[in-house]
Amino acid sequence: MMIRYLQPIRELENLRRQMDLVFDELSAQTAQTNDTSTAWVPAVELIDTGDNLVFYAQLPGVAAKNLDIQVTRDAVAIAGERQRQHQSENANYLHSEFRYGKFQRVVNLPVAVQNDKVQADFRDGILTLTLPKVEEVRNRVVKINLGESTADAEKSIDTTAQTVNSQN
């Protein structure tokens, strides 16, 4: 009779490896047959600098000619396509986590912007849009002259102080 020792950790590790292989094969098959599974969405960042909103989008590997950027008063829409750089019919991809294909992203803006005065810059895979705010929503500093109302406020404070002292 042969004695066999139970090793649950090793068996769980073998099961995990087998499940990883199954999911890798499934994802590779669906990536080849279904273009929507490879769709991706670029990361964006929106910063308020006072008079402007600055919009950044990460678009590595996307050519400027493959971009469509539309700006309305209250939204930014970017669409485009990232294509494989090494397209070869006999290429045998062993592993790839890159996302290729068409993308579309719409970002609603928190305030209205002057869409006819947008400045764009596309450098090193980063799209930068400077979106000037409309005049009505810009932060403005207004000096308020209190004049006589300040003197009235001081009189009411003095009256309150006298009332407190008379109670003591």
TrEMBL record:
Pfam families: HSP20. Residues 35-147 form the SHSP domain. It comes from the Bacteria. Transmembrane segments: none annotated. The keyword Membrane does not apply. Keywords: Stress response. Gene3D superfamilies: 2.60.40.790. SUPFAM superfamilies: HSP20-like chaperones. InterPro entries: A-crystallin/Hsp20_dom (IPR002068), HSP20-like_chaperone (IPR008978), Small_HSP (IPR031107). PROSITE patterns: SHSP. Belongs to the small heat shock protein (HSP20) family. PANTHER family: HEAT-SHOCK PROTEIN 20 FAMILY MEMBER. This is Heat shock protein Hsp20. It comes from Fischerella thermalis JSC-11. The lineage of its organism: Bacteria, Bacillati, Cyanobacteriota, Cyanophyceae, Nostocales.
